[in-house]
Every structure is written in structure tokens, then in C-alpha cells.
Input
Amino acid sequence: MYDFSYSNLKEIKKNPEHYLIFIKRLLPRWANGIPDSECIAIFRVLRSLRNKTKNKKLTLVETGSGASTLALFLYCALYGGKFYTWDTNPNKGSFLRSVLSESMGKTLKIDVNSIWEFIAFDSVDPHIGINILKEKKIKVDFCFFDSWHTLEHLMKEIKEVEKCLSNNFVLAFDDAYYQKKKFNFSYINMLRSKLNLKKIKEPKNNKCLPFYLEIQKYLKSKYKSVYLFKDSYKKDFKNDIFFKYYEADRLFMNKMGMEEKKKLAHRFDAFFVKK
Output
């Protein structure tokens, strides 16, 4: 179903970003949650990190899965490395595995299982969460966080991955402009609306600074060098057809507070950190 023809390996290596978006646009909406411009930005940050680490084979982590999984897989398939995904939805993992196997895996002649591990569980679980990488003596170079979208849960994930980080690493975030401290009422109210339940008013004490500012402050308090990537997303998102194509869906998301048009420049942020 996903084994559409796309030129050849030589052309893919020449223009991997075009190939990445070609496959991304085959995904159904429920698995295609991030804009094309963000997917490309993730891939570019990875290539930048590769240059900074002298072509090291990177170990990557993501919490939540979808189009970002394609970017991480394509990077590892072309340049080496391995990545680990935590997502509580096992069906999503199975679906993405079939997509990757039939598309990129077949074309690039790569066994999906050789470079990707999908863990269908909570990322901060003490027994099978991110901390198992320390148990396996694995050092992590890159993390993309896109799970529960609250500062409380995000900080738990960061503190888990800190147990096994390389000396130079990147932490990247989806919806980095969110200001939800303990509960993601936007998502909660979206689900409540489907059940014909009244919207819950978000309490003032659930608001924090935008995630990217909270995280930047935390990282600068702990590490020698922290800087925010000048990523391509901030320039490219304004002309991204993803937003227009899914406009009807996004109108509802804006109504629920799941997306804020005026803050989209910080939907994606990534920090390069040196210990």
C-alpha cells in the first residue's frame, strides 16, 4: 500500500528532504500531526548535529510518534545510527512500522527493526521508560519530545533522558509555545466535547511560561553551553501547505486551544547543549 515508486537511491541521497515529504504526505491525518516544515527542520537539525559530532552514528529518542518517526528513520537509514520511540499507542507503532517497511525500508534496502525500537509504554515509567537506555548503557545524542504536552510531564522526560545523555546533545520539542503546567486542558476539552460534556475552565495556576523558555532556563542552570537552533521551521512554516490543507481541522483545534496561530513560530524549538 505504501510502496509507491520514487526514482532511485541516488536521487533520494541527492534530495532526501523531498523524499521525506513525499512519504509523509501518504500518511493519514491521525498519524500526520506535525507540519511539513517541522518534519524537515527535525531532519536538518539531525544533519547539523552529525556535522558537529564529526559524522558520529547517533542514538535518537522520541516520545510520541508519527511524521517525526519518518524523519528519524530516514536519517538513520542514510547516515547510520539507531532510534527509540515511546508511545502508549501500540497500534500506531504497528502502522508506522508497516509504512516504513513498505516505503523507505524497501527502497533503501534497510530492515526497519535493525534501526528502530518501538516501546508501547509510558516514557517515564521506572521499569520500561526512557531510563532503560541507561540500563543498556546507551548514550543518547538527540531527543524529540511530543507526548503529553504539559511542563510537568516534559520535565520528567528530560530528567529521565539526562541519565544517559552524550556530552553534546540536542533536545527538540513540538508545541514548544504551550504554557500548560500540569494538565493539558485543551486536549481534555477536545475529548470531552466528543462526549457532549461541558468544557472545563482552565485554572490560572495551570499556566507556566512557554515551554521553550522554561526549558531554556532549566538547561542554562545546569550545563556549560546552551543555545537555541536557528532552525528552518521559523522561516518556512508561513508558506507550509500543511496548514492550509488541514484548515478545517485546525479551526476546531484553535477553538479548543490546541493550536494558537499567533504563536506558531515557536511550535518547534531545538537546543544544542554541551555538558
